[in-house]
């Protein structure tokens, strides 16, 4: 049923779905945006962690006596104690603070921790060896769909192959950390976080566990995060370092800054589980998929983690016989954190790569094969449309050739594709919109902008609703004192925050209309806010400029409230999207170097709010995908149990010249009536599988695991 | 990696010689580094005056010329330019990310050349003209590179942005008609994690022509 909260009809949208400059763009381009790392408070101390140098052991001694005599030393707090077990190198043991950054480095280096060494295991790919080391947790089979044995009998072609991808780490450019200023009963936290509203409770709980501190009320904590430098799923909690930083602030009576060093950031503050698997897949002669069977294993640290939802996208339980078994490998590496679309990028590799191998075996063009089986997906028509659109963008029909049929020169070119899906439902959100007598409008909520464009989307919603322009709106987010809104994870933010903002703004406008109706002697129901005016749609002589209308408020400020969910508030959002990506690569078979010529991406997200920022999310996903497809890997050494590349020299990320040409198409005007759906995760899923498939198409053999480094490419060619 | 290794260094605008002068590496060769590092300063050309009288490890008074203004401060000789800018002068536009001359987030311009400020000591920056992101725009107008970053949505979280803007400025200062390959080469010493390169490339290319 239609309500006044519904999104304006397409012909009435002047801002929604259009291109807009990022509201926070100038502050960021000027270097004026203040991140947590940038806070310099009066008398502020610098803190640093002391972390475990062993991958597994029991702490038998912590000696801080030399550190306490170091110049500038101000205090330290233990995070672990003698007798505690550390389960990965880099685990947080204590936090120490001093008057300068240089002094705290000296003081931290003067701490001695002694361990009783315990056996460690850091390798995940060789599951048999991991099993011998007693590191593989038992699993059970998950069987769905038609009878598997019958399905295999009906298959005319099968492929059995090995596929996988390595552990990678988030490597947020602003490391995890915060500045804490504990003054009297007030704890102000400048936290680099994806969860402004969650941190007060998280910190209060962590502090209250310390009997020397006693109960801390969440309301005494004020989190301030107007900007944050990257999270990607890794920054939801206050973490041990945040609690320790607060304790140091209380202990010293000074503000304290504790931001992780780069090596700590890469070892303990990020981590996407690996996934490896033996996959068997079968189809009939005409390309109809009939069965998918997998044994997969992965690690995300001690707890394992990383069970992939396979078969991915092509998973109709009535028509496709499926059997999956997943093994958790327990390793002494930093624990996994959520990474954009947890487990989906892995599932895409473990599904779309075997599918392309099967298409090659069937001598089918993958475009035809993936379309032919679209009925096995949840949204066949969407995927068929998106496959065709993407194929057009990459020039598939001109450029695609049969696998390995790529000429005689040393540089082979190939195309590959992948599909993905994600939910992106809205999170809970409350919003307060204020209209001031001077015409000022503010949108207020304890949300956060991770760089996705929250400032911009909320400005667009309020401006569109009030008939104003983006600069007329002030968006106040990044403070936990504002109305509560959800954490930014799982592509839930844009759906939640735009709905609460729309409802709050409509409610505020209703109040303004009531005041204006009286002044104009008009019916409030006839009033419209558009083009900077409030006027009667039935009598054009009854019209006020926005400023005049707001002056009628006298000295009163209107506050409109809105929330998500709201059963009576119209249908503003949805979940469940599709997307298709295709890659065009060149591979030098003499050096093994893969380079990207082009990647094309087609993505639906329901109603697009800010087209340019939506596209930026997809571009960013493709570039991150190039990174983990070709370069990125957390490399662990079994002998020492340590990560060998916790830095940015050897933890490789692409530069501006490594990404080729990228083309993004957001599907608009097709699924707008579904409302707003999140964009952060979906496009981040497919790039690895698409690039791997393109490499296989180019060189004629499958490079089994990502990243597709030159050594692996050459090894695959040599094995062929 | 491809032949365009992102770690090749900021460093230059196109057609420029690789940086001369002081780097972390030459510093290590020259005087060693660590808690008790002793720096070397002189008057005329402090950066190169390796044979002059040693100072430190206690803080020494230095003067830095930043964005046309003279700043006097006392720092230990081991303090890097990035830490002096951020921790002593509250010039926090330049970011500390890798702290090892790889990612370019700390890029500033010294005597016209882009430099990783994590890899230059503050004492070595004396007597040189230092430009930071805070100094290239006025309250009313942004530098063309900054304006084009906004136009092309060349930023997400924005943490790498100041370094990329300064690297971009160095490119356009040295070349009013850079090719896209020139732009990619000049930006190859800067890393963005969110993935903003598509907008960044266009922004720098267009800014040169603005």
Write the layout of secondary structure elements.
The complex is a heterodimer of chains A (720) and B (210).
Chain A: H1 25-29, E1 45-51, E2 57-63, H2 65-68, E3 73-78, E4 85-86, E5 92-98, H3 101-109, E6 112-117, H4 127-132, E7 136-137, E8 142-144, H5 148-154, E9 157-165, E10 177-183, E11 186-191, H6 199-208, E12 221-223, H7 239-252, E13 256-259, H8 262-268, E14 275-283, E15 289-298, E16 321-329, H9 344-361, H10 366-372, H11 380-394, H12 396-399, E17 411-422, E18 429-435, E19 441-444, H13 454-466, E20 473-476, H14 493-520, E21 527-530, E22 533-536, E23 543-545, H15 546-551, E24 558-564, E25 577-588, E26 594-604, H16 611-631, E27 636-637, E28 642-643, E29 661-667, H17 687-699, E30 705-706, H18 710-719
Helix pairs in contact in A: 9-17, 13-14, 16-17
Chain B: H1 24-31, E1 39-40, E2 54-55, E3 60-66, E4 69-75, H2 81-88, E5 107-110, E6 113-116, E7 129-131, H3 144-151, H4 161-174, H5 180-186, H6 197-209
Parallel strand pairs in B: 3-7
Antiparallel strand pairs in B: 1-2, 3-4, 5-6, 5-7
Helix pairs in contact in B: 3-6, 4-6
What does this structure look like?
Chain A is 27% helix and 25% strand. With 720 residues, chain A is α+β, with helices and mostly antiparallel strands. Chain A has 4 domains: 121 residues, Aldehyde oxidase/xanthine dehydrogenase, molybdopterin binding domain (Aldehyde Oxidoreductase, domain 4), CATH 3.30.365.10; 79 residues, Aldehyde Oxidoreductase, domain 3 (Alpha-Beta Complex); 230 residues, Aldehyde Oxidoreductase, domain 4 (2-Layer Sandwich); 139 residues, Aldehyde oxidase/xanthine dehydrogenase, molybdopterin binding domain (Aldehyde Oxidoreductase, domain 4). In chain A, the strands form 7 sheets. In chain A, strands 3-5-1-13-10-11-12 form a 7-stranded mixed β-sheet, sandwiched between helices. In chain A, strands 7, 8, 9, 14, 15, 16 and 30 form a 7-stranded mixed β-sheet that branches. Chain B has 2 domains: 130 residues, Roll (Ubiquitin-like (UB roll)); 66 residues, Orthogonal Bundle (DNA polymerase, domain 1). In chain B, the strands form 2 sheets. Chain B has a 5-stranded mixed β-sheet with strand order 4-3-7-5-6, with helices on both faces. In chain B, strands 1-2 form a two-stranded antiparallel ribbon. The N terminus of chain B is likely disordered. Classes of the chains: A alpha+beta (720), B alpha+beta (210). Chains A and B meet through helix 1, helix 3 and helix 16 of A and helix 2, helix 3, helix 4, helix 5 and helix 6 of B.
């Amino acid at each position: 049923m239609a309500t006044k909260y519904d999104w304006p009809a397409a012909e009435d949208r002047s801002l929604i779905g259009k291109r807009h400059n990022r509201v926070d763009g100038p502050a960021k381009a000027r270097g004026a945006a203040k991140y947590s790392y940038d806070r310099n408070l009066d008398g502020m101390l610098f803190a640093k962690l002391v972390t475990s140098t062993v991958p597994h052991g029991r702490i038998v001694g912590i000696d801080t006596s030399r550190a306490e005599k170091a110049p500038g030393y101000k205090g330290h707090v233990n995070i672990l104690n003698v007798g505690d077990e550390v389960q990965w190198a880099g685990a947080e043991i204590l936090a120490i603070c001093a008057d300068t950054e240089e002094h705290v480095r000296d003081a931290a280096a003067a701490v001695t921790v002694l361990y009783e060494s315990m056996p460690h295991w850091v390798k995940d790919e060789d599951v048999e060896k991991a099993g011998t080391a007693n590191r593989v947790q038992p699993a059970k089979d998950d069987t769905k769909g038609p009878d598997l044995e019958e399905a295999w009998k009906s298959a005319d072609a099968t492929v059995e192959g090995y596929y996988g991808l390595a552990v990678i780490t988030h490597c947020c450019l602003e490391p995890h950390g915060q500045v804490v200023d504990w003054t009297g009963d007030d704890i102000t936290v400048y936290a680099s976080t994806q969860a402004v509203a969650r941190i007060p409770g998280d910190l209060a709980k962590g502090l209250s566990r310390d009997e020397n501190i006693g109960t801390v009320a969440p309301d005494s904590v004020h989190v301030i995060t107007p900007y944050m430098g990257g999270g990607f799923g890794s920054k939801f909690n206050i973490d041990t370092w945040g609690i320790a930083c607060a304790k140091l602030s209380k202990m010293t009576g000074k503000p304290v800054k504790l931001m992780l060093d780069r090596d700590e950031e890469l070892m303990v503050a990020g981590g996407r589980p690996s996934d490896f698997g033996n996959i068997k897949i079968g189809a009939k002669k005409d390309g109809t998929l009939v069965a998918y069977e997998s044994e997969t294993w992965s690690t995300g640290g001690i707890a394992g983690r990383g069970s992939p939802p396979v078969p991915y996208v092509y998973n109709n339980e009535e028509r496709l016989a499926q059997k999956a078994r997943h093994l958790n490998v327990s390793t002494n590496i930093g624990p996994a954190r959520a990474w954009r679309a947890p487990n989906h990028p892995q599932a895409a590799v473990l599904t779309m790569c075997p599918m392309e191998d099967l298409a090659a075996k069937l001598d089918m063009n993958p475009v035809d094969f993936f379309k032919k089986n679209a009925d096995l997906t949840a949204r066949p028509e969407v995927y068929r449309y998106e496959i065709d659109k993407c194929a057009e963008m990459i020039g598939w029909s001109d450029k695609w050739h049969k696998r390995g049929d790529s000429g005689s020169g040393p540089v082979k070119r190939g195309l590959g594709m992948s599909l993905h899906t994600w939910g992106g439902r809205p999170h809970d959100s409350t919003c307060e919109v204020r209209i001031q007598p001077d015409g000022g409008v503010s949108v207020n909520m304890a949300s956060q902008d991770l760089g996705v464009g929250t400032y911009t989307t909320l400005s667009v919603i309020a401006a569109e609703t009030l008939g104003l322009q983006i600069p007329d709106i002030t968006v106040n987010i990044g403070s936990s004192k504002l109305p509560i809104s959800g954490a930014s994870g799982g592509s839930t933010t844009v759906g939640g925050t735009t709905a609460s903002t729309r409802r709050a703004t409509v409610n505020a406008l209703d109040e303004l209309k009531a005041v204006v109706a009286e002044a104009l002697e008009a019916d409030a129901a006839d009033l419209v806010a558009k083009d900077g005016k409030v006027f009667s749609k039935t009598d054009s002589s009854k019209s006020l400029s926005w400023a005049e209308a707001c002056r009628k408020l006298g000295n009163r400020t209107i506050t409109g409230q809105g929330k998500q969910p709201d059963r009576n508030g119209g249908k503003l959002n949805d979940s469940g999207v599709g997307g298709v990506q295709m890659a065009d690569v060149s591979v030098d078979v003499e050096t093994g170097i893969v380079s990207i010529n082009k990647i094309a991406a087609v993505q639906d997200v329901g109603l697009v709010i800010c087209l340019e920022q939506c596209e930026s999310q997809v571009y960013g996903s493709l570039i991150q995908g190039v990174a983990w497809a070709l370069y990125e890997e957390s490399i662990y050494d079994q002998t020492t149990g340590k990560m060998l590349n916790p830095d940015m020299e050897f933890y490789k990320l692409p530069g501006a010249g490594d990404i080729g040409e990228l083309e993004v198409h957001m599907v608009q005007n097709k699924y707008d009536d579904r409302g707003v759906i999140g964009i952060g995760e979906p496009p981040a899923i497919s790039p690895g599988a698409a690039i791997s498939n393109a490499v296989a198409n180019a060189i004629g053999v499958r490079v089994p695991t990502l990243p597709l480094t030159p050594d692996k490419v050459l090894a695959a060619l040599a094995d062929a | 990696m491809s032949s365009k290794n992102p770690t090749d260094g900021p460093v230059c605008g196109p057609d420029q010689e690789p940086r001369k002068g002081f780097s972390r590496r030459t510093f290590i060769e020259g005087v060693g580094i660590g808690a008790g590092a002793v720096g070397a300063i002189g008057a005329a050309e402090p950066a190169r005056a390796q044979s002059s009288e040693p100072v430190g490890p206690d803080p020494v008074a230095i003067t830095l010329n930043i964005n046309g203004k003279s700043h006097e401060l006392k720092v230990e000789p081991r303090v890097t330019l990035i830490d002096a800018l951020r921790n002593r002068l509250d010039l926090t536009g330049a970011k500390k990310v890798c702290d090892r001359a790889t990612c370019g987030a700390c890029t500033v311009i010294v005597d016209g050349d882009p430099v990783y400020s994590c890899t230059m000591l503050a004492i070595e920056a004396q007597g040189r003209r230092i430009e930071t992101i805070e100094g290239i725009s006025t309250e009313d107008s942004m530098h063309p590179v900054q304006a084009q970053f906004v136009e092309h949505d060349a930023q997400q979280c924005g943490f790498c942005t100041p370094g990329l803007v300064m690297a971009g400025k160095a490119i356009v200062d040295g070349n009013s008609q850079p090719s896209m390959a020139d732009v990619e080469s000049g930006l190859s010493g800067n890393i963005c994690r969110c993935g903003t390169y598509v907008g960044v490339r266009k922004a720098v290319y267009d800014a040169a022509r603005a």
